[in-house]
Each structure stands twice: as structure tokens, then as C-alpha cells.
Amino acid sequence: MDTNEATSTTLRALDLPHALERPSRRWLGYGLVLLAGGLWACLGLFFRALQSYNLPPTAIALNRAAVAGLTLLLWLALRQPAALRLRRRDLPYFAAYSVVISAFFLVYVAAVNQGSVALASVLLYTAPVWVVLFARIRWGEPLTSATLLALGLAVGGSALVALGGGALDGGGLAILLGLLSGLAYAVYSLLSNEGLRRGYPPTGIVLYAMLGGALVLLPFQDWDAVGRAFTTPGAWPALLAVGWVSSLLAPVCYAAGQQRIGASTAGILATVEPVIAALLAWILLGETLAALQLLGGASVLAAVIVLTWSKMSSRDEIKE
């Protein structure tokens, strides 16, 4: 089964947009966010496959947004045209979301180029802290002892996974870019939640964010490189996978899960991404797993268990 068939099969299995948007038990929300983390974790594998083609980060970022946005536009036009409706008063919101998406795509890659993957990853996963704080201030989401414990375990575990994978090389600019990528990731998550609260379906939110993000990225392109990217047959599988898996399915699953469990919980659960990425690199690329990475993975897993157990055992959260 090729990438196109796999994506179509996944969409049908999820029955997008219907399955992701109908009311359901909270456990489905946890599962969708964890699935999103796994899909995002594949991004490193796809980038590794694209390295030999010497494509600039801006071209890859444009590909991510354009492939995801155009595919989802076609899917919704055929399956649920009502999801394409956009209220005029929400145009500033989607414009801001598009800018944040494109900024995140670019700033994270710049952080890696200026420093190291380890440093960028550690600083990126300061994002759950911002998400929890902003969600508390903006929407009054509860800040329980279990949430704080899970947050500490998740952020600390993510740092250990990244530290075990490489040295924290980089100067002041690399640190600044890494912190900005974490902030952009947090704002991305919060804006997704804002769209849900405005009544948009997860698929509609991702659609307009990605299409808008592609438009924002257009002025930053080296068009010779873009042409090379889209005319090199060997690069197509990885380019399509980056768009479909990590930039379409992952954000839709994340938004649908966030719709059920809230921004704070989703932001913490998504820290499974670096753990899964390290496991994939170990299984598929033959990279070693250091003791720190194993300890970090156990810490993130403990965060997931603490958070899920506390939420599901709460009387206010359980639905008969």
C-alpha cells in the first residue's frame, strides 16, 4: 500500500470529519492526542529521508502546509462542504493562526541549524508549561496537583530524552530560537482550542490554518529549490508523507482529542512525541537508546498514567 492509499484508508477509518467531531467518551480524546504524538514523531524519519536532496527548510515548510491544506480542502469539498464555511468575523483569528503555524515551522528548523537537535528539543518542550498557564488564564482550566505533577514529569522526561540523544550545543541565538519555537508551539495549541470554542470542527481549523500558513510562507521561498523539490521523483514519498502524516492527520487528531480533554491535558500528553521519535530511530535507523532516554521515556509514561488516571477517576470527568 502506497502513501496515498494509506492516507485515504486512515481518513475512511476515522470517517473524517464525522468520527472526530461527534461527542464521545474522554478516553477517545486521550487516544487521539497520543496518536497525534506518534504521527508527529515520524517527522524526523521523513526529514532524514529528505536530507539527501538538499532542500531548504522553507521549501519543506511550504510543502508541509500546502500538501496538508490542499488535500484536506479536496476531502472536505467531496465529503462535507459545510465544514468549509468561514465566518467573516473570524478571519483575524485564522490569519493569526496561519502566521503562528508558519513561524513554528521555520523557527524550530532555525533553532536546530543554530544549535543542535537536543537543545531545540529541550526548549521546544517548554511548550506544555505555557499551554497550562495560558489555558488557566484564558479559559479557567483547572490547575490540580495531578496536572502539576504530570507537567513536571512530562517536561523533565522530554528533556532527558533529548539530552540522551545529543549534546546541548549552541549559543544565545540558538537558545532564543528554541524558546521561541516552544512559545510558538504553545500558541499553536491554544489557537487550535480557541477555534474549537468558536464552533469550528477540527478539520476546518486545520484546513484554514494550513492554507493560510502556505500563503504566509510563499514570500520566503527559493523557487529554484521549490521546483527541485516537486520535480524530483525520489523525494515525493517523503514530501507527501510529511504533508499527509505529520501536517494533516496529526493536527486533526490533536484538535479532535483536545476538543474532548482540554488544552492543558492535551499539551502534556503530546510530550510522548520525543519518546516515540527516539524509539522509532532505535528500531528503524539503528540509533542507540541511552540510559537517560530510557529514564525520560519512563517519566513521560508516568505523566500520561498520572494525568489519565486522575482525570478518569474524577467524578466530574467520568461519564456513565
Task: Describe, in plain words, how this protein is organized in 3D.
By secondary structure, the protein is mainly α. Helix 6 (91-114) packs antiparallel against helix 7. The protein is globular. The protein has helices at 3-14, 18-21, 26-41, 43-50, 57-79, 91-114, 117-124, 127-139, 145-165, 172-197, 202-217, 223-231, 236-261, 263-269, 272-285, 291-313. The chain has one domain (23-313).
Provide a compact summary of the structure.
Helices cover 78% and strands 0% of the residues. The protein is mostly helical and 320 residues long.
Topology:
Layout: H1 3-14, H2 18-21, H3 26-41, H4 43-50, H5 57-79, H6 91-114, H7 117-124, H8 127-139, H9 145-165, H10 172-197, H11 202-217, H12 223-231, H13 236-261, H14 263-269, H15 272-285, H16 291-313
